[in-house]
């Protein structure tokens, strides 16, 4: 959705006269300058740190349950570590570089949803099976991550709505420009005149 809005914004800007497009772009820059946007990492990094600490404290050998349950826990831990160490850092760096862009933050939000799903499965499995300290740490980390992804989701939605408003303003400016622009009269076609050729008749004198 956010990428579609960004493409629509660009398309409408290209269709506008330079004067209107320039004023709209200047206004957009002024709005972004006057309204500082919080970097996405500041919304989610504390929760990610909590998830990392809780995960590092998990010792599946101390958990109750079958060997299959512990194997599933190992797979979930590997997936969680991959998200925290490999997948999320470059996504967060790209989002922080363009904090007002919904398109830049959307991949972070999607990855947080996937990470929360994995963490929630581990947390549920820890209830009654893991030592109390490990379960408590997982419960707290899951709650923090849930709050962080909701906060980022609200920020992405607000950014998308702001982009939509800019597109709407540009469309209104384009329509007004078209209404006030002088109508060009259709070019009249000058009729072409063809000169009639004289037909010469050759006559022969009678003998």
Which secondary structure elements does this structure contain, and how are they paired or packed?
Blueprint (H helix, E strand, L loop, with lengths): L1 H14 L2 H17 L5 H17 L10 H31 L4 H25 L5 H49 L27
Describe the protein in words.
The protein is mainly alpha-helical and 207 residues long. It has one domain. Helices cover 74% and strands 0% of the residues. The protein has six helices and no strands. Helix 1 runs parallel beside helix 6 and helix 3 runs antiparallel to helix 4. The longest helix has 49 residues. 24% of the residues are buried.
Short description:
This protein is mainly α and 207 residues long. The chain has helices at 2-15, 18-34, 40-56, 67-97, 102-126, 132-180.
Into how many domains do the coordinates divide?
A: 1
Overall outline: elongated
Q: Estimate the helix proportion, in percent.
A: over 70%
Number of helices: 6
Tell me the span between the first and last alpha carbons: 100 Å
Poorly predicted segments: 1-17, 19-26, 28-34
Mean pLDDT: 78
Strand content range: under 5%
**How would a textbook summarize the main sheet?**
none
- Rg, Å, rounded: 34 Å
Global structural class: mainly alpha
């Amino acid at each position: 959705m956010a990428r579609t809005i960004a493409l629509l914004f660009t398309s409408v800007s290209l269709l506008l006269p330079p004067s209107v497009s320039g004023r709209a772009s200047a206004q957009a820059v002024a709005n972004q300058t006057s309204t500082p946007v919080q970097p996405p990492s500041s919304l989610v990094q504390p929760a990610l740190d909590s998830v990392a600490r809780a995960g590092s404290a998990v010792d599946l050998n101390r958990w109750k349950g079958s060997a299959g349950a512990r194997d599933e826990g190992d797979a979930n831990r590997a997936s969680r570590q991959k998200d925290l160490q490999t997948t999320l850092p470059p996504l967060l760096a790209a989002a922080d570089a363009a904090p007002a862009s919904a398109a830049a933050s959307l991949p972070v939000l999607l990855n947080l949803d996937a990470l929360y799903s994995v963490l929630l499965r581990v947390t549920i499995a820890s209830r009654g099976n893991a030592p109390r300290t490990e379960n408590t740490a997982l419960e707290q980390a899951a709650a923090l991550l849930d709050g962080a992804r909701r906060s980022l989701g609200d920020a992405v939605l607000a950014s998308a709505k702001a982009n939509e408003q800019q597109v709407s303003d540009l469309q209104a400016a384009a329509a007004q420009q078209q209404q006030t622009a002088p109508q060009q009269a259709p070019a009249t076609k000058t009729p072409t005149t063809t000169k009639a050729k004289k037909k010469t008749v050759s006559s022969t004198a009678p003998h």
